[in-house]
Amino acid sequence: MGYNTILTQVDGKVATITLNRPQVLNALNDELMDELGAALLGFDADDNVGCIIITGSEKAFAAGADVAKMAKYSLQEVYRHDYISRNWEQIRKVRKPVIAAVAGYALGGGCELAMMCDMIMAADNAKFGQPEVKLGIIPGAGGTQRLPRAVGKAKAMDLALTGRMMDAQEAESAGLVARIFPAADLLKEVSAIAKNIADMPLLTAMMVKESINAAYETTLSEGIRFERRLFHACFGTNDQKEGMAAFVEKRPAKFTNS
Ligand code: CAA
């Protein structure tokens, strides 16, 4: 499918979506968010894909929502057209694992997009921040909610109130980033991780994602109850039978995603 603002590639069971507006450091406009949503939902529906990567360039994952476009918006327009809610959160409908591979700037909406993914892998040159306060707005794509859940209140307040940037090392120590790689190796390393995940039994990987995400939406006892139901459901899958039989018989498992 032809897109203007993203590139897509499938290698084995791994789909990679590359944000591609280099002239504006991948600033996120409506067209890009529409295309990203369409690509994500397409790969989610594709039985041959087991894991999705979202990445940008070595200089920028995304430097935020498109400020040049936003500068002209009125309250009436953003409310009437449901700015952000209309198309930015398609990613929340994706049930397969999604990894953000972040090099360079992940600012404002770029940081928020990365946080909508299931995990963030960072290049050693990555810089995260929520600089919206300097533009007279607050983070509008989940930053005030997902950032404190990832890094705690103190650091979230510090970042969103000062608008400062946080480097990859700080982001990893704070819990925002899962792992850091040299910038030149980022995509190779993240692709290998994605392949590893895509080779897992798909239904089980989807249940892991659903259950961990439930931890951010509910109480501990409700979350545990939800986990237990999915855990029990695993015993109804062919891949549980195969995975355990293969372990007992000391042979590699042949999963069928069923
Ligand atoms: N929107 C639109 N254009 C952007 C952009 C953005 N968010 N970020 C960068 N660009 C454009 C610049 O205007 C510039 O275009 P020109 O070449 O036509 O001048 C081009 O990208 C290159 O950027 P710089 O020359 O500024 O590059 P730099 O290396 O000197 O600085 C930067 C890089 C520090 C990331 C700087 O570009 C910057 O501060 N960008 C804006 C970051 C920002 O404020 N993001 C938050 C946006 S608000 C938001 O995201 C709301 C929300 O929560 C949904």
Sheet with most strands: strand arrangement = 1-2-3-5-7-10
Q: Work out the oligomeric state of the chains in this entry.
A: single chain
Bound molecules: acetoacetyl-coenzyme A
**Could you list the spans in which at least 5 consecutive residues all have pLDDT below 50?**
none
Note the run of SSEs as H and E: EEHEEHHEEHEEHHEHEHHHH
Distance between the termini: 28 Å
Helical stretch tally: 11
The dominant shape is globular
> Strand share of the residues?
15-25%
- Integer average pLDDT: 98
Secondary structural class: alpha/beta
Radius of gyration: 19 Å
Largest sheet: 6 strands, mixed
Structural account:
The protein is α/β, with parallel strands linked by helices and 258 residues long. It is 43% helix and 16% strand. It contains 11 helices and 10 strands. The chain has helices spanning 30-45, 67-70, 75-80, 109-116, 143-151, 153-162, 168-174, 186-198, 202-214, 220-234, 238-248; strands at 6-11, 14-19, 51-55, 60-62, 98-102, 105-107, 119-123, 127-129, 165-167, 179-181. The strands form 2 sheets. It has a 6-stranded mixed β-sheet with strand order 1-2-3-5-7-10, with helices on both faces. A 4-stranded mixed β-sheet has the order 4-6-8-9. Strand 1 (6-11) and strand 2 form a beta hairpin. Helix 5 crosses helix 6 and helix 9 packs antiparallel against helix 10 (220-234). The two termini are 28 Å apart. The mean pLDDT is 98. It binds acetoacetyl-coenzyme A. Residues 24-25, 27, 63-68, 105, 107-109, 112, 131-132, 135, 139-141, 143 line the site of acetoacetyl-coenzyme A. Acetoacetyl-coenzyme A is lined by residues 24-25, 27, 63-68, 105, 107-109, 112, 131-132, 135, 139-141, 143.
